[in-house]
Amino acid sequence: MDIVPGILKGDKRSIARLITLIENQADEARDLLKQLYKFTGNAITLGITGPPGAGKSSIVNFLAKKFRENNKKVGVIAIDPTSPFSGGALLGDRIRMQDLTLDEGIYIRSMGSRGALGGLSRASYDAVKVLDAAGMDYIIIETVGVGQSEVDIIKLADIVALVLIPGMGDEVQAIKAGVMEIADIFVVNKSDMDGADRLITEIQMNLDLNQDKNKVKPPILKTVGTTGEGIADLYKTIIDVQKQLQDSGMLTNKRKTRINQELQELIREIHLKQIISSFETQIRIFTEKALNKEIDPYSAAVYILENAKL
Amino acid sequence: MTGSKTIRVLIAKPGLDGHDRGAKVIARALRDSGMEVIYTGLRQTPEQIVEAAIQEDVQVIGLSILSGAHNFLFPRVIELLKEKNAEDILVIGGGVIPEEDIPGLKKAGIKEIFTPGTPTSAIVEFIKNNVKV
């Protein structure tokens, strides 16, 4: 089957093939994405992020089932870290999603982060577009287990749910910058463990300190990822947040910002590639010169770029 | 620009078999040789394995089995791959498999069987030599 018509029909093999081409940065991937672009924009993207072992995959598993109960098609992109040494990866998110495999309305793809440091992989941005064009109603992106500063998920998801667990530190952790600031929804998983209520209080206190009183206060929910407790409420909350975003025009704003960023990044990438390839010799010569202290790299870069304008 | 191609492998435990130490050791060795390894966990049906392999677009499926049901489950995986036009995926197997069963499994389409004692490097080598990237 041809890839583009296959994807538009929701054929999983075609979806899988294009995502591989994207991951391998094959030339044809971009041509295919150009053809698919006008069919995107219908899916809601939901980011699930949080520290390693917080229960993200288990929550994705239960949430995907909820979406299916409501007759929605679901795409899942689950990212795990790539080894900085071997380039290999162990992708284990599917272990928690075994019962989703044979559901016709679900497609799951595991991805290695392949050098990206913000909790996603480079290919995940375009993979989301493929799933969108394939007719998925919701696309769930599960990030790498994150620390405090991996916040790239806000560049990809319409709604971000941050999964936290009790026992990860004192109340100062809750007021630190970074990942605590990106959540549209807080999920306190493993809430049957000691310390869950304290964690909720800490998150609440942190949210109360927000200066911007117009900002919607993110809801905080309790779940137990092993049993599915609390998932029904989480599902309802996601739908509520989605409605708010749509009705207030925030969703369009978010997407506009995202396209703007993407465009800038593409210009940067294409431009850089052109410069690097057309000035290969100069770069080599100036590297030698800087090594011998005949020129400093700051001046060398300016010199090369000024020549690039010609 | 054409980037690098990473070998993607699905490691699966078919059937009612609760032991996955071996599968994890293999998964780790493949990871360390630069492959992306998708591990799907215990007690998978052939249908689940084949569907996951297609969604993940892997070039290799590694089946690990200790229960003795390999003569049924391994050929079933091959059969389903054929049904889905995905017979280009290389299938290898490992675990406690009697010598005398190996020719039959190979005839059914399993490319190689690795029995206990095989160094992990032999498996890495086999995959690298037999996968077209």
The biggest beta sheet of chain A is recorded as: 7 strands, parallel
What is the mean predicted local confidence, pLDDT of chain A?
92
Reported by name, the CATH topology of chain B is Rossmann fold
Lateral arrangement of strands in the main beta sheet of chain B? 2-1-3-4-5
Mean pLDDT of chain B: 93
| Most extensive interface between two protein chains, with residue counts | A-B, 33 and 33 residues
Roughly how much helix do the residues of chain B carry, as a percent range?
Answer: 40-55%
Q: How is the largest sheet of chain A built, in terms of strand order?
A: 4-2-5-1-6-7-8
The CATH architecture term of chain B is 3-Layer(aba) Sandwich
- The domain count of chain A comes to 2
Q: What would CATH call the class of the largest domain in chain A?
A: Alpha Beta
CATH superfamily of chain B: Cobalamin-binding domain
Query: What's the overall geometry of chain A?
Result: globular
| CATH domain topology of the largest domain in chain A | Rossmann fold
Q: What is the CATH domain class of chain B?
A: Alpha Beta
Computed Rg of chain B: 14 Å
Report low-confidence residues of chain B grouped into runs of 5 or more: none
Structure summarized in a few sentences:
Chain A has 310 residues and is an alpha/beta fold. Chain A has helices at 3-8, 12-23, 27-36, 56-69, 124-133, 171-174, 196-208, 231-248, 250-278, 280-291, 297-309; strands at 44-49, 74-80, 89-91, 106-112, 138-142, 159-164, 185-188, 220-222. In chain A, strands 4-2-5-1-6-7-8 form a seven-stranded parallel sheet, sandwiched between helices.
Can you walk me through this structure?
Chain A is 45% helix and 13% strand. Chain A has 310 residues and is α/β, with parallel strands linked by helices. Chain A has two domains: 39-248, Rossmann fold (3-Layer(aba) Sandwich); 262-309, no CATH class. In chain A, 39% of the residues are buried. With 133 residues, chain B is an alpha/beta fold. In chain B, strands 2-1-3-4-5 form a five-stranded parallel beta sheet, sandwiched between helices. Chain B has a single domain (8-130), classed as Rossmann fold (3-Layer(aba) Sandwich), CATH 3.40.50. The interface between A and B is medium-sized, with 33 and 33 residues. Strand 3 (89-91) of chain A pairs parallel with strand 2 of chain B, so a sheet runs across the interface.
